[in-house]
Automatic annotation (TrEMBL):
This is SGNH/GDSL hydrolase family protein. InterPro entries: SGNH_hydro_sf (IPR036514). The lineage of its organism: Bacteria, Pseudomonadati, Bacteroidota, Cytophagia, Cytophagales. Gene3D superfamilies: SGNH hydrolase (3.40.50.1110). It comes from Dyadobacter luteus. GO terms for molecular function: hydrolase activity, acting on ester bonds. CDD domains: SGNH_hydrolase (cd00229). SUPFAM superfamilies: SGNH hydrolase.
Amino acid sequence: MKLRGIALLFTTITIFSFWQCRNEPHPVQMGVDTCTSVALSDPGIFISKMPQPSFSLASGKVPYGSKIVLHADSLPAPGIYEISVDEGKNWKAAECFAVTDTMNVWGRTRYKNILSPVSKASFTIFYQRVLIVGNSITLHGPLPDRGWFGNWGMAASAPDKDYVYQISAKLKALNPAVDIRLLIAVDFEQNYRTYDYAAVKPFTDFAPDLIVMRIAENTKMTTINDYENRYDRLITELRLKNASSKVICTTSFWANMEEASYRIRNVARNRGYEIADFAEMFEDASLTAIDKFQERDIGIHPSDKGMKAIADNISKHF
């Protein structure tokens, strides 16, 4: 009799724990596929309707990568959550999702052919920590003996005309508190084969949720076959503290660096990064400041028009 009492107590605790875990939303981590909704064993109970789920966050602006969880009270064990991002055309068994773009999301619960009412939400993203990896097009101090007196993106006529200022304004419109930092990576471009990646640790620790890779123009060509894996590693190092960060790669503004651009495209395609391609800019001389500086090496940098074209190309991937 005593053993039967212990068994009954154990069974009661097990059932209670199972039901509690199945119905309470649980924390999830970015980068881990914990969102798939899996039906548990069918207890053989009669089910006539399914509960309508709710979203853990209300519609509106959310930080990039936010995890949104679907939750319904008293979801039967064999029921599942489903999510659609194309207005109900296709449904995926999932109980949560990461917001990585502007999106309209529908959610429901289902058991066989029994469907709950649909819940709907709309989300737009903003970024909290942005890292721009660049070179002289991003920032260059004065070179008065060569005719450059600025301390901003080289060849732009004023600070608010360079691409960094322009994309920063767009990022701040999404989130006034966004923290934007610059990593001037000319040393990497010129010495990528022997580059000490420990140099970027402060930027890795920053854990950016958006990385803009605006380098290519100074790439050392004599060792170009090593560039692709070194460029790939640089991004990997920068994402060590936030592996789900969004990455926007850009190709070279200069046509003579197509070998570097080719490898940048390869990395972006293989890793699923965004690519802002500048190839169409090569034919438009007005995008450079060549007629505004006697020093050719300065004049081949983007003009105000070129800076705006770069900013527009990058920001469309936000």
